[in-house]
């Protein structure tokens, strides 16, 4: 699959006479529900010989609409684009969400952008979708606008896991509440923290466990503080490792850090971009009375992480034997 990322409406050129099958939203997390919508856009576009287009916004609309209550993000824009390349084939149109866009009514957005600029033929949305000023563009309004402006509307029903409807809000709550495994099940893919390696205080190296300190955006939602088994991608290379997310109580700055200890790896990767994938929660963060006590616990953590990774490799091998398409 491949996507073509277009930033700004002025950079999107609709071929003469071409129609568009589109969806729009923040798509934070690209979870199982989002994946079903994206699949339908791709399928219908192929049936209609139309251009598939996903319209999303940067920043998250609630940064402007409810600035005191804007959610932290499951996926930053860069992480979202990387994921979309696995689940979508078509145009990804990123619109800057500013005051002008915020104040457009649903009908203005449909008339000026979806129909006027994109030549919309078919719109695919989730069951609870709403957009436009004051979220006036609900399903009923979309059906009316489709009739008025000559496009069809398809509503995708919710995806259920454990009899619960999947949503970005629910996944954020699971991550914030420490239910990491369930959050990942709802996502349908590994959680990721993407950023460049920055210098830390160097405590890990002094203790015999050097770590890559990964920068992360201020709006990124981190899993609960603690130790995780993880995979880390450095360029095209993947390494297993231990991950610490939280406040290092021996660090006078006492800020929340993301630190990965990569197994069988000893390269200078400062300022390199990493993607860290926590795969299993090991233990909660806690304060230690001395660095010796911390090292003793890290050794215990390391053995548990190695056991988790070995078990995971066995499971992956079994699944590959069952299905050649397992990745």
Please tell me how large the radius of gyration is.
22 Å
Look at the helices and sheets and give the structural class: alpha/beta
Question: Distance N terminus to C terminus?
Answer: 15 Å
CATH third-tier fold name of the largest domain: Rossmann fold
Number of helical runs? 10
Cross-sheet strand order for the largest sheet: 1-4-3-2-5-6
What are its keywords?
Rossmann fold; 2 domains; 327 residues; six-stranded antiparallel beta barrel; alpha/beta; elongated; Elongation Factor Tu (Ef-tu), domain 3; six-stranded parallel sheet
What does this structure look like?
The chain is of the alpha/beta class. It has two domains: 3-164, HUPs (Rossmann fold, 3-Layer(aba) Sandwich); 192-322, Elongation Factor Tu (Ef-tu), domain 3 (Beta Barrel), CATH 2.40.30. The chain is built from ten helices and 14 strands. It has helices at residues 32-48, 62-65, 77-87, 99-102, 106-115, 139-149, 168-176, 180-187, 203-206, 291-322; strands at 3-7, 20-24, 51-58, 90-96, 120-126, 152-156, 160-161, 164-165, 193-198, 212-214, 226-234, 237-247, 256-262, 273-284. A six-stranded parallel β-sheet has the order 1-4-3-2-5-6, sandwiched between helices. The protein has a six-stranded antiparallel beta barrel with strand order 9-10-13-12-11-14. A two-stranded antiparallel ribbon has the order 7-8. Helix 7 packs antiparallel against helix 8. The two termini are 15 Å apart.
SSE inventory with pairings:
Elements: E1 3-7, E2 20-24, H1 32-48, E3 51-58, H2 62-65, H3 77-87, E4 90-96, H4 99-102, H5 106-115, E5 120-126, H6 139-149, E6 152-156, E7 160-161, E8 164-165, H7 168-176, H8 180-187, E9 193-198, H9 203-206, E10 212-214, E11 226-234, E12 237-247, E13 256-262, E14 273-284, H10 291-322
Parallel strand pairs: 1-4, 2-3, 2-5, 3-4, 5-6
Antiparallel strand pairs: 7-8, 9-10, 9-14, 10-13, 11-12, 11-14, 12-13
């Amino acid at each position: 699959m491949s996507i073509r990322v277009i930033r700004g409406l002025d950079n999107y050129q609709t071929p003469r006479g071409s129609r568009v099958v589109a969806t729009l939203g923040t798509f934070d997390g690209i979870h199982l529900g989002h994946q079903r919508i994206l699949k339908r856009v791709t399928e219908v576009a192929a049936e209609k010989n139309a251009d598939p287009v996903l319209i999303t916004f940067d920043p998250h609309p609630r940064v402007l609409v409810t600035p005191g209550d804007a959610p932290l993000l499951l996926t930053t824009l860069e992480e979202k684009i990387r994921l979309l390349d696995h689940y979508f084939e078509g145009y990804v149109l990123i619109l800057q969400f500013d005051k002008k866009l915020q104040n457009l009514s649903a009908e203005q957005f449909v008339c000026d952008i979806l129909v006027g600029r994109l030549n919309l033929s078919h719109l695919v949305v989730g069951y609870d979708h709403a957009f436009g000023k004051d979220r006036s563009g609900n399903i009923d309004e979309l059906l009316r606008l489709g009739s008025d402006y000559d496009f069809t509307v398809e509503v995708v029903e919710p995806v259920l896991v454990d009899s619960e409807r999947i949503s970005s809000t629910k996944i954020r709550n699971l991550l914030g509440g420490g239910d990491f495994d369930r959050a990942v099940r709802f996502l349908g893919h590994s959680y990721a923290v993407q950023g460049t390696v920055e210098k830390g205080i160097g405590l890990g190296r002094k203790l015999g466990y050097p770590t890559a300190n990964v920068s992360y955006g201020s709006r990124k939602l981190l899993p609960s503080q603690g130790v995780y088994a993880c995979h880390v991608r450095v360029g095209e290379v993947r390494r297993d490792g231990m991950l610490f997310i939280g406040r290092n109580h021996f660090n006078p700055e006492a800020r929340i850090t993301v630190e990965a200890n990569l197994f069988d790896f000893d390269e200078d990767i400062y300022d390199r971009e990493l993607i860290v994938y926590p795969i299993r929660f090991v233990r909660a963060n806690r304060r230690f009375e001395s660095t010796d006590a911390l090292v003793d616990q890290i050794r215990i953590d390391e053995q548990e992480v190695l056991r988790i990774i070995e078990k995971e490799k066995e499971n992956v091998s079994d699944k590959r034997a069952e299905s050649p398409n397992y990745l």
